[in-house]
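Hi V.,

You were right to ask for the full record rather than a summary. Here it is.
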Amino acid sequence: MPNHKIRPLAELAEIVAGLKAESKTVVHCHGVFDLLHPGHIRHLEAARRFGDVLVVTLTGDDHVNKGPQRPVFNQNLRAESIAALQCVDLVAVNNAATAVQAIQKIRPNFYVKGSEYADSAADLTGKIDDEAKAAIEVGGEIRFTDDITFSSTRLLNSHFPVYPEAADTFLRVMRQRYRADDVIARLRQLREVKVLVVGDAIIDQYNYCSPLGMSPKDVFLVTRYRDSEMFAGGALGAANHLAGFCEAVEIVTCLGTEDSMEDFVRSHLRPNVQPTFFRSPGRTVLKSRFVEPAFFKKMFEVCYLEDGEVPGHVEEQMCNYLEPRLSRYDLVVVADFGHGTVGRRAIELLCERAPFLAVNAQTNSANAGFNLITKYPRADYICIDEPELRLAAADRLGEVSVLITDMASRLRCHKVSITRGAKGAVTYSDEDGFCEVPVFSNKVVDTLGAGDAYLSVTAPCVAKGFPMDLVGLIGNTVGALAVQIIGNRSPVDPVSLYKSLAAMLG
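Predicted structure:
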């Protein structure tokens, strides 16, 4: 194999500098090349004709943004495939999301893309303009080849078992119903939805500790502290997810009077999230988890929280603030983690006045069996997991479909999503009936916040009238992206979702 062509990017950049000093014209191409096909080969051969040396960089595995289960071939195999081509002189893996960094290092005379990128408005990533600018800034220019094109995604979807069997069967049906560009266009229209988020602010802390073993003098585990980081979670995380898709987002929540962490919260909200804080005695809820970093295993958790609803006068202030404003929003999302922010009067107000009400009520170790979706006498969309549904229905073994229809009737709710972990999700509406949506990826880094991401992105979709099978497809795709993010380190990125859907719908 011609592995001598494959070099680290920094080393390749030095080689190119020497070639340019010899007056060689350097051409640079970049891509994922997950499945090398005739379209790629003819593109690279055409690009080679622009100069003397063809350098190809490819996106590293961690930055391939093609949806669950991608890339199919790892970066080493993809690099070997490219290097095997006679027209290619040098190959490097680019460990970045775009080619900008590689262009800046290589400084090519020509940066060459396929004809499908000539219209920058059609580029889902919106990065082709950045790459063209980078090429100009290093003294080069961008060129486009004009030859036959193929879609690696379509070839993989048609001929390779990219997804688990159930997901592959589901997606084949969905490809008959929906076109990727139509779905993405509908998602982009969510920008106009005005959203209010009400719920519990939670600070999630991860303390990374390496286990040392049992104490020789007592019966407890000893660990060595390594590092820690904190995230804006709970309703704060939901607001951040929503803010990627909707232009106007407000969050109403409570922070503590003793240790509010307000500066942290404000600095970890997206710029288009408008926060309104009320103050409740005690500290802002903090959940401190101790995590083994090598395999990302959670060992235990310490919660800092007040047990009970916010004081009556605080709830009154919050309701007085909300009441005249609810009609200004298209969608109200309630992220109720049972830590007191959403009290009885607030629930009554939201259920009576919210124009479109989406609710998630979560149980956790602090309120298991007490914070149930049945607190809400009415909702337009409920999104909870199966254990929460079963607790609310007081039914451990019944058919999920029966529990859903009973709960929908009880809450006067016409649209429902039930997430089921490794079993995927079930969506329901009076018009569409039931749709079972499988998981699209078995790759899981961290499940924290995945359900919140599902709720946050699907709620405006439901409010805008998306069919519920499409809601399930979008929700589980969001979930597949969210479980690859540690905690709420970053919200689900709309471009990642668009590219995933484009790849899955092929």
